[in-house]
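Lecture notes, unit on protein representations.

Consider one protein chain, 117 amino acids long.
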Amino acid sequence: MENITRKNGRHLRVPVLPEEEEAIKANAKAAGMTIASYLRNVGMGNEIRGVLDQQAVMELAKVNGDLGRLGGLLKMWLKNDERLAMYDSEQLKQTIVGALEKIKEIQDVLLEKVKKI
């Protein structure tokens, strides 16, 4: 009995319009799959988890890292009595509020990226 593989198995032909072909190719590429693998998975009803999801996770990790570094710098700065002595209370308040606003901006960027996923 012959061992059936995809290469020597059945092949389906599906006529498509040029714009459909381009869309299928783009979707397969975005998913990090060959066209055949992409169409097989879509045809079998499998969920396609693409490379774009991985890219989004990497972007979130980068923003999260930036947020952590900013928080660490603020903490280090606040622990440094010599640096704090340079500022009067109003300057200190403005500087801390500015840093906290920057942290809030980064949190907003992170939230927008999460929403897109």
